[in-house]
Amino acid sequence: LRLGQEMSCPLVVSAPGKVILHGEHAVVYGKTALATSVDLRCFLALLPPREGCVELELPDIKLHKRWTCSEVMAVKTQEGADLEMLRELCGCGSAPSTESLALLAFLYLTVSICDGELRKNAGVHALVVSSLPASAGLGSSAAYSVCLAAGLLFISGQIERLPLPDSSSSSCSSSDSISRTLPALIAERLAAEGLSSDKPPCAARGAHAHAWSEAELRLVNKWGLEGERMIHGTPSGIDNSVSTYGGAISFKSGSVTPLKRMPNMKILLVNTKVSRSTKKMVANVRHKYEKVDHTISQPCN
Fold this sequence. Notes:
Largest sheet: 7 strands, mixed
Strand content: 15-25%
Structural class: alpha+beta
Order of helices and strands: EEEEHEEHHHEHHHHHEEHH
Distance between the termini: 48 Å
């Protein structure tokens, strides 16, 4: 599968959310943090595109946007994407909304990863559905960014299709198990496009993404972080690392170490339904940290 080619089987990517067990703010300052993935996921389906169009559907937040390839490529410069033009295209003002930031991450990654295909007027059509609540500290934006990065890298030819296991395989990356867990909305759309979810999709599932090589995972993680930067400004990189690699990890200054012997733990997650901005919280802590406020600096150290 490449942009502009007929899709003989659906491409579906999913990535998990996360919970940080230790060091949520200290990790921004180069300290070690421990985190683990949770079984709440973001799913991305790449649908047959309209010729010459870039399209994003986010039904969870009632958002559906379409641009022409020429509109999107107009923000491309020799140095990369013109962020001011891109923000204007997405409607990001001085206080950007969740919707505009989601558009910004999508268009930035599309222009950066798929510029060669867009120049040929090939389109992109992404449908994203998530079980992760937004602004709840569970890594919803990271899972979204990692899904976008993996899907766009695949269709632009920079990472390979995951091998489908045979019926006797006990591989955790079983495509059949993915088919059974697809959100109903994605399954319905695949069927409407003639891409039955009974056909095994090409899929990545966080901790089971080891079917991709280490180099490919690093590439997905790198672009997942770039998507996070569009949304959060200066993220530590831990959220996208958990979404890319899955499982439990130790994270310090961009270095990811999978934890092989995590003890069994029961973690109670309570959704207060009170949304918060990670970007604002990190900025508030940074302000105090740089003021040498010992109530912040000592715990971080």
